[in-house]
Amino acid sequence: MTIKVALAGAGAFGIKHLDGIQNIPDVEVVSLIGRRLDQTQEVAAKYGIPHVTTDLTETLKIRGVDAVILCTPTQMHASQSIACLEAGKHVQVEIPLCDELKAGQEVARLQKETGKVAMVGHTRRFNPSHQWVHKKIAAGEFNIQQMDVQTYFFRRTNTNALGQARSWTDHLLWHHAAHTVDLFAYQAGSPIVKANALQGPIHPVLGIAMDMSIQLQAANGAICTLSLSFNNDGPLGTYFRYIGDTGTYLARYDDLYTGKEEKIDVSNVDVSMNGIELQDREFFAAIREGREPNASVASVLPCYEVLHQLEQQLNA
User: Fold this and answer.
1) How far apart are alpha carbons 85 and 197 in whole angstroms?
2) Residue 102 pLDDT > 90, yes or no?
3) What angle do CA 299, 304, 308 make, to 5 degrees?
4) What is the pLDDT of residue 158?
5) In degrees rounded to 5, what are phi and psi of residue 146?
6) Is residue 256 packed enough to be buried (19+ CB in 10 Å), middle (13-18) or exposed (0-12)?
7) Angle of helix 101-114 relative to helix 297-315, nearest 10 degrees?
8) N or C: which end of the chain has fewer CB within 10 A?
9) Which residue blocks in the chain are alpha helix, DSSP H?
10) In the beta sheet, which residues pair with residue 248?
11) Quick check: 306 and 191 in contact, CB under 8 A?
12) Which residues contact 211 (CB under 8 A, 6 or more apart)?
């Protein structure tokens, strides 16, 4: 059976999904939804997608569509996920699930009610570097004592991953911190019980904090320190240091090193080195097998509960 999928968001991340889906058998992208029709038509023509629109509602009325992948602005994620579930479609929404906890809780409630697959793009769970560490933990060969994480971008202007102007404002807490908050609890195998945050000055134009520091502790005692910045004019990206009882590992996207900078081969961890493709493979496999996916809405909701607590702390 071919799964017919619609993709909303023809920007930098939507294209990453389209590239990944090309490597997955028996999946066909039948509709592309974008903000600007001309740009969306251009992307659709390149990937051979027959239907193009600027209106998600129009796509949700197409009977043959089984599933939707949402790569739209953060502020639309929860409401669009709800619309997809109400239309009887499986949904995968890019991180973050929401920028307000009650909206995320509503998506979780609706998923339970409809029984559809609802998954969030917590890509770090799928990156081969982090999978390698996860397998070591699952085998009882490594336990995290501390994670030290740096998430650094240079975003003094509102641009996306391709350097193009953005129509919306990104967020350090609800978007970028979500990756690490979820990954820490997932890798520690223990819920987060303490969380603290500090933020730097608010940007006069973007209206967001450009720098943030977060501390986390899991119930099993493991700790995590996360530094985030949109002001960093240097190497960009997220760098993870796993400090454990039997070793230290440094994860830089898909590369993994020991604490002594010896490279670890992670090429055989999974069927691909592309975290987005692996995430999409899990989404489609869960649909076919009628099961809950890794990074389901239900499994990542605790992450958003922590982000909510941190936001309340910062606003106090």
Assistant:
1) 34
2) yes
3) 155
4) 58
5) -150, 145
6) buried
7) 170
8) C
9) 12-21, 37-47, 56-60, 77-86, 101-114, 128-138, 178-188, 275-289, 297-315
10) 243
11) no
12) 172, 199, 200, 201, 228, 229, 230, 231
Copy the structure tokens of residue 7: 């993709």
Neighbours of 48 (CB within 10 A): 9
**How distant, in Å, are the alpha carbons of 172, 194, 276 from that of 13?**
17, 32, 9
DSSP state of 159: B
Cα angle 19, 96, 22; round to 5 = 10
Q: Is the pLDDT of residue 161 over 70?
A: no
Q: Which of 248, 278, 267, 315 is nearest to 126 (CA)?
A: 278
Longest Cα pair distance anywhere in the chain, in angstroms?
55
Using pLDDT thresholds of 50, 70 and 90, give the confidence band for residue 192: very high
Give which of 140, 232, 216 is closest to 180, Cα–Cα. 216
Q: Which residue's structure tokens are 């500090």?
A: 198
Closest CA relative to residue 187, chosen from 265, 269, 120, 132: 132
With residue 93 as reference, give the H or E element that holds it. strand 90-94
Hey, what amino acid is at 40?
A: T
pTM over 0.85: yes
